[in-house]
Amino acid sequence: MNYYQAIADYCDLLMDGGYYEHKSLAKSIQSVISQRKRVLELGIGTGRLAEELLRNDSSYDFVGIDFSPAMIGIAKERLCSHSVLLTECDVSEMSLDRKFDVAVSCGGTWVIVR
Asked: Are 52 and 28 a contacting pair, CB within 8 Å?
């Protein structure tokens, strides 16, 4: 197992350890985004938040990005039963040629200047 895969596996276990309550987060996010369906998750990691969002409403046009191929690999396995586009990229350099109704992130700090 390579170093980055070990970190991704550890992160996945850590995210399931109770610090983040993904079910509650998903419900809160869904109450805010309402009927907006084109969703971008910045730093999707191993896909735990996306899994909960899609469990509650599978009609999202969902895209997740992360710079870690190991994290994307775990997210692909976790989200294989959903129609989700997962892209390995750096958020500061992404070029997705799409527009989104909502951008969400869990556990990170984002500053967006337009």
From this structure: no
Question: Quick one: pLDDT at residue 60?
Answer: 93
CA angle 76, 81, 84 (to 5 degrees): 55
Coil, helix or strand at residue 61:
strand
Instruction: Specify whether the CB–CB gap between 69 and 4 falls below 8 A.
Output: yes
From CA 66, how far away is CA 8, in angstroms rounded? Answer: 12
pLDDT given for residue 6 in this prediction: 79
**Alpha-helical regions (H) of 1-114:** 3-15, 22-33, 48-56, 69-78
Q: How far apart are CA 93 and CA 106, in angstroms?
A: 20
Beta bridge partners of 41: 64, 104
Q: Is 69 helix (H, G, I), strand (E, B) or coil?
A: helix
Rounded mean pLDDT for each run of 10 residues along the chain, 114 residues in total: 74 72 89 91 92 92 92 94 92 86 80 60
Closest CA to 86 of 69, 100, 99: 69
